[in-house]
Amino acid sequence: xSKTILPGTDESGYYEIRMESIGGLGANLAGKMLAQLxxxxxxxxxxxxxxxxxxxxxxxxxxxxxxxxxxxxILRSSPVYRPHLLVIFHEALIxxxxxxDGVSDRTTVVINTAERPESYxxxxxxxxxxxxxxxxxxxxxxxxxxxxxxxxMGAAAAASGFLDTEKLMELYRASIGERxxxxxxxxxxxxxxxxxxxxxxxxxxxxxxxxxxxxVQGGINPFPGNTAVNDLSASREGxxxxxxxxxxxxxxxxDSTCPDMVFQFSETVENGKLTLHNxxxxxxxxxxxxxxxxxxxxxxxxxxxxxxxxx
Length: 311
Ligand code: SF4
Ligand code: SF4
Prior knowledge:
Layout: E1 14-22, H1 27-41, E2 44-52, E3 60-69, E4 85-88, E5 108-112, H2 117-123, E6 131-135, H3 137-144, H4 148-160, H5 165-174, H6 176-179, H7 184-199, H8 204-207, E7 239-243, H9 253-257, E8 263-270, E9 273-281, H10 291-295, E10 301-305
Bound molecules: iron/sulfur cluster (2 copies).
């Protein structure tokens, strides 16, 4: 099956996007759509989530998207600290919030502003080695009578060098476009405008590398991190609690400490009394916090690396 080659990844194989926005501008939806684009249309593994305080319009929102090529599994669910692509939905955030945290020479930055990249580079030393694209996305959204997030998604796709705008439009038509058909044409126009505004500034060599090919995937993601099978293993950071049944005194402290009821118990009759025996953790539900290891009084649980030791 054909697949997408990511243009750059970190040491764990992830390509990461962070969107800095304000509640109501649609960054959360944009993050979900970009993840769906990768997973359903471009042969990538993908995940996304957003972080917002009180869920009120007007408060800061951060949306995170993580991609990995198909051979890998996404085992990180933390916020994106070192983005490959940083998308600023509103320039009012700059200076008030640490929106440029974690940028480096590998970061491409897209800013909704009428200013030019050079003026940002001059004022913000941390951007000196970044690739910066500026577009007046608010103006374009007003021009098209569309949502700002559509313009920003188009811009992000162009700046990424690998996210496919035609496929993004197809996804939009098949999802939100179905529910709001009267908004379809305007929003697609906005997406295209955002793409073109950035695409004009991108050198051909950046996008026409000939590396990108893809096919429609469909179905659900069977790997950890989805919500279909409630598999929490994607939350782990490489370590698991290893159970040593021969040492266990079945005190149940691990069970009462574990936030996710991971431990499995069986009923046994001992000396004529019904008792519960700890059978160990069901790793599907274990997020690797290792509180159980700390609480166990007899070292029947120890910290181990995920992998060959996993039961
Ligand atoms: S805390 Fe330790 S000894 Fe107690 S049930 Fe859990 S594993 Fe067994
Ligand atoms: S590591 Fe955390 S989630 Fe996993 S079994 Fe222990 S307490 Fe529960």
